[in-house]
Specification:
The protein is α+β, with helices and mostly antiparallel strands and about 425 residues long. The chain has 2 domains: about 5-210 and about 305-380, Antithrombin, subunit I, domain 2 (Antithrombin, Chain I, domain 2), CATH 3.30.497; about 215-305 and about 385-415, Alpha-1-antitrypsin, domain 1 (Roll). About 25% of the residues lie in helices and about 35% in strands. It has 9 helices and 17 strands. The strands form 2 sheets. Strands 2, 6, 7, 8, 9, 10, 15, 16 and 17 form a 9-stranded mixed beta sheet that branches. Helix 2 runs antiparallel to helix 3 (about 70-80). The protein is globular and about 70 Å long.
Length: about 425
């Protein structure tokens, strides 16, 4: 018999591959590689999808800091991370770059108001926290590492004797950090009195367009819902300079937010029913190449949409990707000795990963939020003459991303098959 002592992690983060200490490329590249892996796992059927690979990678990067042995090797492979000490500093550099982007737009707005420029900056909040069972023997080196590099404060709770209050406290923290957009991340009954740690990451973004759409140009236009018969939906329209490229089988268009360091990316298949084919050839390189598209005059038709999917459980998805021992598969294999001393009859393993998102795109800009929870348990075991604008009608299922331009990392990635 084994007792289950869960640890939970919430998060979004992005990680690229080879980098020098302090370089965000490692975190960004890794995040985008995981983004594509998860998109392939989750984009089944004909449903909408919204995922924050940044949140998920961040939460699991914090978890990775506590892994050892084969568990660490497997996690490194699935998360596309090097098995060395560069990971925490790269995530720290990426988070710092994102926060600096938000601060820069605040200064930009302050200056530009005199000239009729943008009136609202980008609001971005990234928060990490360790909710831990009070009295449990976590290693000080682990707590120090995640505090220093992820800003994750340590907060003791009592999952053993007051589980309901502890669960409510974690969910309230996530709701507060996401401006109430992510509620009840941890479903009822998901934790138990063997829970020992919840590593939480919450992400919130409110980003105005660099040049908003006019409400007056939004009109009903046909959209081929699920690639089928057209249905009228509210379609925004603007002719302006957008990032644009035509590739084999799809068109990419990027819309800048205030400050130009954040963008909304649309990948539109040529065929009305071409979403599956496009998703099959989606790669981290394709996403990275779209970070800096050439500006062209585009007559863009883009549907408004809002997605608020329920909490999704990702444990099985990560096991399918090859991360098994972290979930104690086979029994007795989980090794998080860097997080807490591993004993034969008292050790931690991940029991579940919860993820929840929100996104709304309209004439003013985009609001998005996400949180990820990893649940661990203790076991007893250049411009020329302007050509005519290129018309791009986003009138059938497409892939979208919210992308940080300097790093190329996708904070959000998903698909819209029905914008209603």
């Amino acid at each position: 018999m084994r007792l289950s002592m869960p640890c939970y992690f919430f998060g979004m983060l992005v990680v690229p591959f080879v980098c020098n200490a302090g370089d965000f490329d490692l975190a960004a590249t890794a995040t985008n590689q995981l983004a594509v892996d998860l998109h392939r796992q989750l984009a089944t059927g004909d449903e909408n999808l919204c995922v924050s690979p940044y949140s998920i990678e961040s939460a699991l990067a914090m978890t990775f800091a506590g892994a050892e042995g084969e568990t660490r090797t497997e996690m490194a492979r699935v998360l596309h991370l090097p098995n060395d000490g560069a990971v925490p500093t790269s995530f720290s550099a990426l988070q710092r770059s994102l926060e600096e982007m938000s601060a820069k737009t605040a200064d930009l707005v302050k200056e530009s108001k005199r000239f009729g420029g943008p009136s609202e900056p980008i609001t971005l909040s990234i928060a990490n926290r360790l909710f831990a069972q009070k009295g449990y023997n976590f290693r000080e080196a682990f707590l120090s590492l995640v505090k220093q590099n992820y800003g994750a404060a340590f907060e003791p709770l009592d999952f053993v004797t007051d589980l309901a209050a502890a669960t409510q406290h974690v969910n309230k923290w996530v709701a507060d950090e996401t401006r109430d957009r992510i509620r009840d991340l941890i479903p009822a009954g998901a934790l138990n009195n063997m829970t020992r740690l919840v590593l939480a990451n919450a992400l919130y973004i409110k980003a105005p367009w660099a040049d908003p759409f006019s409400d007056k140009t939004t009109h009903p236009e046909p959209f081929h819902v699920h690639g089928g018969a057209p249905v009228d939906v509210p379609m925004m329209r603007k002719t302006a300079e957008f990032g644009y490229v035509k590739r084999d089988g799809f068109t990419a268009v990027s819309l800048p937010y205030v400050g130009d360091d954040l963008q909304f990316l649309v990948l539109l298949p040529d065929d009305v029913n071409g979403l599956d084919a496009l998703e099959s050839k989606l790669t981290a390189n394709v996403l990275a190449e779209c970070a800096k598209l050439e500006a062209r005059d585009v007559d863009l038709h883009l549907p408004k949409f809002k997605l608020e999917p329920p909490t999704i459980a990702l444990a099985k998805r990560f096991q399918t990707l090859g991360m098994k021992s972290a979930f104690d598969q086979p029994r007795g294999s989980a090794d998080f000795d860097r997080m807490a001393p591993r004993k034969p009859n008292d050790y931690l393993y991940i029991s579940q990963i919860f993820h929840k998102t929100f996104i709304a795109v309209d004439e003013k800009g985009t609001e998005a939020a996400a949180a990820t929870a990893v649940v661990m348990m203790k076991a007893t075991a250049i411009a020329g003459p302007k050509p005519q604008p290129i018309e791009v009608k986003v009138d059938h299922p497409f892939i979208y991303a919210i992308q940080h331009v300097p790093s190329g990392v996708c904070l959000f990635l998903g698909r819209v098959t029905d914008p209603r």
